[in-house]
Amino acid sequence: MSAPWLVVGLGNPGPAYAANRHNVGQMVVDDLARRAGSAFTSHRSRAAVADIRLGVLPGGAPGPRVVLAKPTTYMNVSGGPVGALAQYLQVPVERVIVVHDELDIPFPTVRLKAGGGEGGHNGLRSISSVLGSRDYVRVRVGIGRPPGRTDPADFVLKDFATVERPELPWLVDAAADAVEMVVTQGLLAAQQRFHAPPA
Fold first, then answer.
1. Are 156 and 22 in contact (CB under 8 A)?
2. Which DSSP symbol is given to 148?
3. Residues 164-187: what's their mean pLDDT?
4. What's 195's DSSP letter?
5. I want to staple 65 with a disulfide (CB 3.0 to 4.6 A). Which of 4, 31, 101, 177 is the partner?
6. What is the CATH number of the domain that holds 172?
7. Are 68 and 29 in contact (CB under 8 A)?
8. Is the pLDDT of residue 58 over 80?
9. Is there a domain that residue 199 lies in?
10. H or E stretch including 13?
């Protein structure tokens, strides 16, 4: 049997942070768990996990095994739980998908890449350090730049603005679709779909 996929939604723990822009990655994995009819349970790696099958293969067979994870640590030390889960599940780095907020992408846009820099994102920096590699897949959920002189560190720790909230469910759904497409069809197919200009 091949290793499962590990899909990590980044965020900070606890209800005070749940609706923050910085927690949109966790919103996406929550959506994937809901689609699969699965609930998260506590894991000794300091993460909440849900073990699911994602998508449907040609012929109707269930899609690949995916372990969804939400670290229960703060964002800047996400690498510890991710590294522990990857080791426990024997998941190679190329089957790790990290879903995270991205300041440099406009709201509400989804972009995907494998490898590259962390763009100042402390959660990604922690994961790269612990995994010893940057070659994992990133599903980058665009939250846009802060207005005016707002400090980006403050901006990401605020909830989505009233004008953004009508589009937030669409954004979360699109990012969840992107994860599913990477797992079932590959990164290139997902990039071709989500990077295409609007029709």
1. yes
2. T
3. 96
4. S
5. 4
6. 3.40.50.1470
7. yes
8. no
9. no
10. none
Tell me the C-alpha distance between 167 and 115, whole Å: 28
CA distance 166 to 163: 7
Count of helices and strands (H, E) across the chain: 6, 7
Residue 182 in any domain: the answer is yes
Q: Is the residue at 101 inside a domain? A: yes
Structure-token pair, residue 131: 């995994």
Give the range of the structural domain holding residue 113, as residue numbers without chain letter.
Answer: 5-194
Q: Report the pLDDT averaged over residues 41-53.
A: 96
Assess whether pLDDT exceeds 80 at residue 199: no
Find where tokens 């290139």 sit.
188
Q: Which of 22, 43, 100, 121 is catalytic?
A: 22
Burial of 30 (C-beta count, 10 Å sphere; 0-12/13-18/19+): buried
Residue 124 lies in a domain: yes
Give the C-alpha separation, 14 to 166, whole Å.
24
- For residue 198, say if its preceding peptide bond is cis, omega within 30 degrees of 0: no
| Residues 18-27: tens digit of each pLDDT | 999 999 999 9
Cα gap 76→155, rounded to integer Å: 16
Total domains, the chain: 1
Residue 55's pLDDT is what? 85
> Residues, the chain, total?
199
pLDDT beyond 90 at 82: yes
22 is catalytic: yes
> Letter for the amino acid at 83?
G
Instruction: Report whether 131 contacts 82 (CB < 8 A).
Output: yes
